[in-house]
Amino acid sequence: MRRLVIDVRPGEYAIARLDATAALPPPLLDPVDGELVSLTRTATELSVVCPAAVAPRDADVEGDWRLLSVRGPLAFTLTGIIAALSSELAAAGVALFSLSTFDTDHVLVKAADLGRAVIALKAAGHEVHGV
């Protein structure tokens, strides 16, 4: 696996679940200064990843997540990035939630596990910034 540059993004994130037929929460559609917001609808849910401060109040919300973003853009032909990150974090006993965008990959780890995550990623040869 090639060496990745990973940025620990500031602030706390939340992962929320709404009913599949729920309307998109309007505050999440407004531009957020440098913060990630991801909305994914399936047949069974509307899943939201967002800064904790703007998490939908009428949702099942799991808070206390920290966001780690791989610096991109990454070519679509690259393989194994999430596999490498997840195996490195799993070996350190760190659970994760992953998502990808057009440009790059992101993982969220519980705030209590952030220190162990950073140590594991650095030990695997990655460059980690923002801690």
From TrEMBL:
Pfam families hit by this protein: A9CJY8-like_N (PF21631), ACT_7 (PF13840)
Organism encoding this protein: Prauserella flavalba
Record Gene3D superfamilies: VC0802-like
Domain A9CJY8-like N-terminal: 11-58
UniProt-listed InterPro entries: A9CJY8-like_N (IPR049447), ACT-like_dom_sf (IPR045865), CASTOR_ACT_dom (IPR027795), CASTOR_mTORC1 (IPR051719), UCP008459 (IPR016540)
Listed name of the protein: Amino acid-binding protein
Domain CASTOR ACT: 61-122
SUPFAM superfamilies: ACT-like
